[in-house]
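Ticket #4471: structure export looks truncated?
Reporter: QA, pipeline team
Priority: medium

Steps to reproduce: submit the single chain below to the structure queue and open the exported record.
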Amino acid sequence: MATVVFADLVGSTGIFERLGDEAAGRFVTQLTTALAKTFEEHNGRVVKLLGDGLFVVFPAEGDAMEACVAIQKRLQERPVYPGGEGKAVQMQMGIEAGEVVEIDGDCYGDAVNSAARLADLAGAEQILTTQRVREQLVPEQKEQLRALGPMYLRGKNEATHVFRVEWQTGQDADQTVMGVSMSKVVKSSQLELSALGQSLRLLPQGEKLTLGRATTASLSINDARVSRVHATIEWRSGHFVLSDNSSFGTWVYMGNQSEPVILRRTECYLVGQGQIALGCGRDAETAPIVAFSVKA
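Actual output as written to the record:
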């Protein structure tokens, strides 16, 4: 049994395009080597460097979460700029626990695959984990987790209950009576949608958006598979929530996952970036697809 962490550099392709292969390669190697030392300081063993990321195993869930939070805070407090300019480096991370098989120094198993999928799903500066990890954390660490609901990770037949680590301490002083964070970070979140040359933006204080065939919809898509008011998106309890109201359902693809969350008069949280297919899967011919991106 072990706890697995995947930590990936956000936007590495852009760094290579801007700096060139040699300079970018040198920068990324120096960065991941430095981050590896932080993981090791928290009892982690770096299994391998993955070009623009790291694969690490820990003996305990609490150590893994502490290490991930320490790195996110380090990058926030001491920003690192590729080539000394541009946008500061950001990381996306996934944590899962379970049985791991070690062969010739490498590690394999369902926990390894799930941690990698969670890292893919996470947005910039986010740490995602699961119910299995949560159960082994001390109460203080559990309080840092916010439930995102069930999601289908690629390669798994059953939904996984996913949690986001709220690691930005000191920004949650202003809360509602329900314990929902109203920090500056949350207030500055925004959801961007785009389809067929149309684009929309939803802020936490914004009104509910509608997706549908009706010309009065916030994002109107004229397709027979799309209901007049097919789905709605609203800010609720610190999340952007997508609700399906349609006849044929809504397919939601999170991050790089190929397996969708299928909604039929149900709802899900939107995290990171991905695609929303209305009335059919995105593999269908000329499927009506809406791209989404949640940013802070």
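Status: closed, not a bug. The export was complete when the record was re-opened. Leaving a note from the reviewer for reference: The chain is about 25% helix and 35% strand.
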